[in-house]
């Protein structure tokens, strides 16, 4: 004999009769007639093979079996309400998940304030941030695995929408009392007389790579580090100079440092990269708007610290 199963209408019928304890009230809540409720309830008891209610003084009293089913029905209804809330949230863009990947300087300076502003508007959206190198980020965006990537697009990509965010320039960090701090612009050859720290990732920039090679900087470079932030800290601690990017200069405490642009190295574009085949959402658009506003403010700081033209930086 085939096993009897409950359908959604029967579950709702049981729920209303147990909750209301009268057929009239249950019928009103279900927008059907009382005779229809009576007929359907009898059919449900016959289908399950158990008695669900007994009458006492004009009211329906649920049996132990009905109470067990009712408790599970409440859990089912709660799950259904949660599912409907999720569907409404996804439809209106007030609930969901936003996945972002960016390189460290972006996560330190731009993302904290942008995420705070975003979550004040969309408190139920889960934000996930991954810090990756540029190659990994471009792969994640191109393969449609994240909603947004923020980095320098150094190669062509397919199925990716690129939106300019800001520009970062290559500058020389030095103590604010360094004689070169008064310059408007520096040449690589000007850096020959003091210990120089470079950043490995920046040395791959073709223009900087060519300048370093032409200036025979082998004896000049005393250290190579993994980040511009570390290079700046070394200048603060030990003196010397470092080749860094202006985004980092605008992202850290620059007390006692000056930054002067290096000539013949064009600005690097930092862009928002969105996978074009990944379904978009209104909150992704909203986050892009927020971070673009943050980038405009950061750009002003970068113009001050990354293009000081001989003026000294203050913290």
From TrEMBL:
<keyword id="KW-0804">Transcription</keyword>
<dbReference type="Pfam" id="PF03466">
    <property type="entry name" value="LysR_substrate"/>
</dbReference>
<keyword id="KW-0805">Transcription regulation</keyword>
<dbReference type="InterPro" id="IPR036390">
    <property type="entry name" value="WH_DNA-bd_sf"/>
</dbReference>
<dbReference type="InterPro" id="IPR036388">
    <property type="entry name" value="WH-like_DNA-bd_sf"/>
</dbReference>
<dbReference type="InterPro" id="IPR000847">
    <property type="entry name" value="LysR_HTH_N"/>
</dbReference>
<dbReference type="GO" id="GO:0003700">
    <property type="term" value="F:DNA-binding transcription factor activity"/>
</dbReference>
<dbReference type="GO" id="GO:0043565">
    <property type="term" value="F:sequence-specific DNA binding"/>
</dbReference>
<comment type="similarity">
    <text>Belongs to the LysR transcriptional regulatory family.</text>
</comment>
<keyword id="KW-0238">DNA-binding</keyword>
<dbReference type="GO" id="GO:0010628">
    <property type="term" value="P:positive regulation of gene expression"/>
</dbReference>
<dbReference type="Pfam" id="PF00126">
    <property type="entry name" value="HTH_1"/>
</dbReference>
<dbReference type="InterPro" id="IPR005119">
    <property type="entry name" value="LysR_subst-bd"/>
</dbReference>
<protein>
    <submittedName>
        <fullName>LysR family transcriptional regulator</fullName>
    </submittedName>
</protein>
<feature type="domain" description="HTH lysR-type">
    <location>
        <begin position="6"/>
        <end position="63"/>
    </location>
</feature>
């Amino acid at each position: 004999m085939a096993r009897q199963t409950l359908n959604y209408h029967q579950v709702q019928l049981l729920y209303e009769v147990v909750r209301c304890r009268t057929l009239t009230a249950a019928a009103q809540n279900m927008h059907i007639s009382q005779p229809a409720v009576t007929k359907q309830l009898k059919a449900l008891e016959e289908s399950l093979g158990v008695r669900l209610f007994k009458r006492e003084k004009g009211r329906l009293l649920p049996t132990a079996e009905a109470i067990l089913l009712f408790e599970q029905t409440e859990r089912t209804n709660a799950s259904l309400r949660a599912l409907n809330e999720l569907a409404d949230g996804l439809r209106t863009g007030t609930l969901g998940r936003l996945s972002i990947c960016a390189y460290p300087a972006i996560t330190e300076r731009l993302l904290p304030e942008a995420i705070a502003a975003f979550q004040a508007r969309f408190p139920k959206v889960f934000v996930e941030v991954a810090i990756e190198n540029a190659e990994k980020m471009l792969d994640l965006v191109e393969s449609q695995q994240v909603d947004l990537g923020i980095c320098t697009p150094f190669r062509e990509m397919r199925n990716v929408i690129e939106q300019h965010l800001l520009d970062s320039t290559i500058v020389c960090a030095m103590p604010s009392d360094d004689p070169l701090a008064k310059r408007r612009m520096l040449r690589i050859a000007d850096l020959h007389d003091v210990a120089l720290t470079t950043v490995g990732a920046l040395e791959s920039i073709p223009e900087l790579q060519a300048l370093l090679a032409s200036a025979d900087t082998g004896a000049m470079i005393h250290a190579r580090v993994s980040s511009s932030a570390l290079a700046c800290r070394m200048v603060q601690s030990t003196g010397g100079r470092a080749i860094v990017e202006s985004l980092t200069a605008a992202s850290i405490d620059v007390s006692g440092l000056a930054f002067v642009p290096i000539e013949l190295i064009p600005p690097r574009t930092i862009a928002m990269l969105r996978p074009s085949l990944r379904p978009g959402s209104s909150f992704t658009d909203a986050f892009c708007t927020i971070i673009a506003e943050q980038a405009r403010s950061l750009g002003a700081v970068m113009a001050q610290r990354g293009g000081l033209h001989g003026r000294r930086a203050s913290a």
